[in-house]
Amino acid sequence: xxxxxxxxxxxxxxxxxxxxxxxxxxxxxxxxxxxxxxxxxxxxxxxxxxxxxxxxxxxxxxxxxxxxxxxxxxxxxxxxxxxxxxxxxxxxxxxxxxxxxxxxxxxxxxxxxxxxxxxxxxxxxxxxxxxxxxxxxxxxxxxxxxxxxxxxxxxxxxxxxxxxxxxxxxxxxxxxxxxxxxxxxxxxxxxxxxxxxxxxxxxxxxxxxxxxxxxxxxxxxxxxxxxxxxxxxxxxxxxxxxxxxxxxxxxxxxxxxxxxxxxxxxxxxxxxxxxxxxxxxxxxxxxxxxxxxxxxxxxxxxxxxxxxxxxxxxxxxxxxxxxxxxxxxxxxxxxxxxxxxxxxxxxxxxxxxxxxxxxxxxxxxxxxxxxxxxxxxxxxxxxxxxxxxxxxxxxxxxxxxxxxxxxxxxxxxxxxxxxxxx
Length: 422
Fold this sequence. Notes:
Layout: H1 2-28, H2 43-52, H3 59-71, H4 86-91, H5 94-121, H6 126-140, H7 143-157, H8 173-207, H9 210-217, H10 222-239, H11 242-251, H12 254-260, H13 265-275, H14 278-306, H15 320-342, E1 348-351, H16 356-363, E2 367-368, E3 373-376, H17 378-383, E4 392-395, E5 398-404, H18 411-414
Parallel strand pairs: 1-4, 3-5
Antiparallel strand pairs: 2-3, 4-5
């Protein structure tokens, strides 16, 4: 597992670098300057300010300058607010977002699994139909529409319509809790409906399995079978969407924060993009994406505890390294074949797909079409009187490299195949 975690972390670092690089060059394409001209400021001093942040440098120069600042630990400055460090400016507003997002996330998980369980157990009954109708409505209606409706509802029932932030001068426990209800519900509905759909479908599939029917036939109570066997086996597909769902709740609250007046990081990101404050945008991309990778890694590891049958793979047979190495090896030996062919060497064999040798190689599965290789034994060389200098087969338009096998083939079983055409 340690090797798996290290590989995943290295991949996360690489993915973060690629993502941040793309975002950086997209931000440099924006025409507006990150520093606004102060009232009464002359043009010369304003241009000097822009020059001091490297605004007139080529994008590639600014790119390397940014990484130098990033690894220096300062992450750059907040333009138009240079008195406040970037991390301080970012984290001073994050408690509002974390408070709303975390409560909405926990509430959505609880409601999603609860209603998914009810809908799956009572499949086809009125409970299932009612929950499915509500879920489809909440998934289909955009969050800003739900937000506006909840905002109107808050005014009708007497709840505060604007969120009371932690640094608000009118902050009290009562108004804070009351103003939190509608923003939290607005973020909860979409995720809860999605989880309900996943849990319900997985539970229905698990309950139709033979081992569930066997457990019921042995006299176990229905609810014991559901909670001890069915629920546990239906958790994994639902858990797989919790990582992306947390990110969507955490960052997808831009409209919600605008509607309810929440001073959170989604609001900061929206304003930072409009102002081309790329240092702040880059740090938010780094923070949120890094959090996303860590949550997914935590969920992958948690799968092994939920279901011990799941093992974390140490390496993939289709890894990028293996693919690149196979391509380079093939390019090398193809070059050798071309050089030998141009020099008149008799190291290749033209093989028609109508010849008996081709059918023999197909029957014993000696031809690897993906790797462009043919595995031969000395028996086949002797049986078909193939020159020992032959290193390549030309089949159609493709060149296949010959690989020698140490295992002797059954010459007697192939003797009846025939040697015609060779």
